[in-house]
Amino acid sequence: MNTTEFAVTGMTCGHCTAAVTKEVSALVNVHSVEVDLATGTVTVTSEGPVDQAAFAAAIDEAGFELAQ
Fold it and tell me: Cα separation of 63 and 15, whole Å?
């Protein structure tokens, strides 16, 4: 299993957590998603490497952005 952390901006509530979790969980090889609102971190556990472009697209679909 791989664990990867991403910084995501704009998440503030449970609805944000649910939206991000739903979109990221749909990605290939993703096993689990944990969102930490306090730090703006999304931790993804996956069977293989997480495709950065696919992750960014999932975050965008959820209505948020990767932190730069």
Answer: 11
Please state, as a whole number, how many other Cβ atoms lie within 10 Å of the Cβ of residue 2: 12
User: Residue 46: what residue type?
Assistant: S
On average, the pLDDT of the chain sits at 96
CATH classification code of 2-66? 3.30.70.100
**Domain boundary assignment for the chain:** 2-66
Two tokens at 2? 């791989």
Write out pLDDT tens, residues 51-63: 999 999 999 999 9
Rounded to whole angstroms, what are the CA distances from 43 to 7, 8? 9, 10
Structure pTM? 0.93
